[in-house]
Amino acid sequence: MSRDIETQVADDGVATLTLARPQRRNALSIKLRNEITQQLDDWAADGAVRAVVLTGAGPTFCAGFDLNEFGQADLARQIKDSSRRYHLAVWHFPKPLIAAVNGPAMGGGMDLGVLCDCRIASSAAAFGHPEIKFGAPPLFTPLQWIVGLGVARELCLTGRRIDAAEALRIGLVTRVTEPGDLLDGALAMARSIIEAPQAALETTKRYLIGSASATFEEAFAVEHDNVFDDFLLGRIG
Predict the structure, then answer these.
(1) Do the Cβ atoms of 133 and 106 come closer than 8 Å?
(2) Residues 64, 28: contact at Cβ < 8 Å?
(3) Less packed terminus of the chain by CB within 10 Å, N or C?
(4) What are the extents of the domains in the chain?
(5) Which residues on adjacent β-strands are paired with residue 65?
(6) Torsions phi, psi for 129 (to 5 deg)
């Protein structure tokens, strides 16, 4: 069976993971989430990998979760379980993780970028949580760690779409490039990062993950697990 991700590891230890479902706007299916989880777990234990750049194939970074699966009641448990494993694998990845946001990053696609350590965007990128309009509360806590409480509240409650320029202004991304320069820019950032010793980078990652007043797991249990339980029981949606 073909994979829905493409991977490459350069000789200097910079790896690239590309979401490769362009025909579905790189929507996060159960299969794609499981493949991302497994790949990051493998790279976490691989001494040859020092940093990872994550991007999308085609004109979209990631359109969010694959809504076709949400209409299938028999997949409900797999959807929740694969989602939990995937989010935690991205959050706990012990090495620098850079999102190269090549196009729209919506819903769960925006969350994927937010969970990375750094974000560089193409001028064609856009961000938003439109799922709020359809009854699905977005992840709030990791977003507010990056852009601040007030901006995060507004983005989560309105679900409005922002372009790359606004994402740069509010600090969601740290750089905007022309589309053709995006991947080179992200790889250059990764190579700048790995000028530091790997032990120092991984120690710093542990600090970054553990520095918030509420742990990611505590916030995630409320914003993800409880939301899924409410959805499965018909209390929301």
Answers:
(1) no
(2) yes
(3) N
(4) 5-179+195-232
(5) 28
(6) -120, 65
Which of the residues 131, 154, 166, 202 is marked catalytic?
A: 131
Query: Catalytic annotation on 35?
Result: no
Question: Please, what is the end-to-end C-alpha distance for the chain in angstroms?
Answer: 34
Rounded (5°) CA angle 170-20-103: 25
| Tokens 């910079």 belong to residue | 14
* DSSP 3-state of 42: helix
Residue whose entry in the numeric block shows the structure tokens 């969350």? 111
Bridge-based pairing state of the strands 118-122 and 175-177: parallel
196 — phi, psi (to 5°)? -80, 155
| Domain spanning 5-179+195-232, CATH architecture | Alpha-Beta Complex (3.90)
Give the Cα separation of 164 and 127 in Å (integer). Answer: 8
How far is the CA of 186 from the CAs of 2, 17, 119, 236, in angstroms? 26, 12, 8, 39
* Encoded tokens for 114: 């937010």
Residues, the chain: 237
pLDDT in tens, 136-195: 999 999 999 999 999 999 999 999 999 999 999 999 999 999 999 999 999 999 999 999
Q: Which pTM does this prediction carry?
A: 0.93
Q: Give the distance, in angstroms, between the CA of residue 13 and the centroid of all CA atoms in the same chain.
A: 21
